[in-house]
Amino acid sequence: MPVSPRRATLATVAASAGVSVATVSKVLNGRSDVAPATRSLVEALLRQHDYVAPTPRRADVTGLGSVELQFDADLNAYSTEIIQGAVAAAAEAGVGVVVSIRRADRTAAWARGLVAAGRRALIAVTSELTTGQLAALAKARLPLVLIDPLNLPRTRVTSIGSTNFAGGLAATQYLLSLGHRRIAYVGGPAAAACNQARLHGYRAAMEVEGAPVLPGYVQAGHFRYHDGVTGGAAVLDLPRAPTAIFAASDETALGIMEAARARGLRIPEDLSIVGFDDTQIAQMASPPLTTVRQPLREMGGVALRTALRLAAGEKIDSHHVELATGLVVRGSTARVAPA
Fold first, then answer.
1. pLDDT tens, residue by residue, 162-202
2. Quick one: signal sequence residues (predicted)?
3. What is the pLDDT of residue 59?
4. Which own/partner contact pairs does 151-159 have at CB distance under 8 Å and 24+ positions apart?
5. Rounded distance, CA 132 to CA 153, Å?
6. How far is 220 from 199, CA to CA, in rounded Å?
């Protein structure tokens, strides 16, 4: 059917597809109880009709509706801190927060489905978004805020982060102040912006001190426990093993602790470890973990308030905000043992 010059409605799409309005709504909301052939037909017609869900009124933004808080992987201690901050800010604003895990098919239908479900904005955490996905969100008029984005899109996108370079610098400088010179870095994805900043801080501190970064001393991962186990094993099995390791997350640090214990190393007597995030697991570790505090709850709250301002059509002062990090010293670090 030719595209109508008027704004398409759910009824328009349903009539074209020969299905009910409820079925079209299910497709928009990503429901699984729709036959694959029907779903494909409806999605094609949504694109053909250039369907965009009605934009909520300004009053709805501040008093009703919800914000989607989407993560790229299974929830962990890092995620919990972000959620706590976002939920607290949402309660003050009178809106709800819907937590989800990233869907594989981030398409135009996905963006329209979020709007149709009543989302006022999307907060994506440690996400990697393509130009097409950003365009789909813009077309659906759905405001986007990124927290610790893995990539920094060329398009002007609002993002919230922390002073990752300063945190990496402080962690490494502290280990150097304890007399360590053989310091390794077990990080996150090599291309992730936050990981690169922490790694650059580590390298800068090592260079200023004249401490060499030996071959094999930098390992990449995904900020997870098992990355610490494998990355820790890789550096601890080197001919010149490090006496200290800076981990790019608390989870990674705990994995390194396990790799060290499996090799009969004591922490901090034989190996000092510094993490990054200062989640609850840092305090529960044995020994408690020295780490760089990333203000995750504050980041969640700032992201939520920023998302609502964008949804209300307000201008924001900066498209990128960095909150300060700080070193928290606990029991996982000590002066280097004499040779």
1. 999 999 999 999 999 999 999 999 999 998 889 999 999 99
2. none
3. 37
4. 151/191, 151/192, 151/193, 152/193, 153/129, 155/131, 156/319, 157/129, 157/319, 158/306, 158/310, 158/316, 158/319, 158/320, 159/319, 159/320, 159/321
5. 11
6. 10
DSSP assignment of 86-104 equals HHHHHHHHT-EEEEEEPPS
- For 315, list phi and psi in degrees, rounded to 5: -85, 145
* Residue of higher predicted confidence among 141 and 327: 327
Same fold, 58-162+297-323 and 164-294: yes
| Residue boundaries of the structural domains of the chain | 10-48, 58-162+297-323, 164-294
- CATH code linked to domain 58-162+297-323: 3.40.50.2300
pTM metric for this prediction: 0.79
pLDDT at 282 over 80: yes
Q: CA-to-CA distance for 168 and 325, rounded, in angstroms? A: 10
Which bin fits 307, alpha (ψ -120 to 50), beta or left (φ > 0)?
alpha
Secondary structure letter of residue 159 according to DSSP: E
Question: How far, in Å, CA of 52 to CA of 50, rounded?
Answer: 6
Specify the pLDDT at position 267: 97
Residues 6+ apart with CB under 8 A from 88: 297, 300, 301
User: 19-65, pLDDT tens digit by residue?
Assistant: 887 787 777 766 667 788 888 888 888 777 777 665 544 434 344 58
CATH class, domain 164-294, is alpha beta
Distance, CA of 162 to chain centre: 12
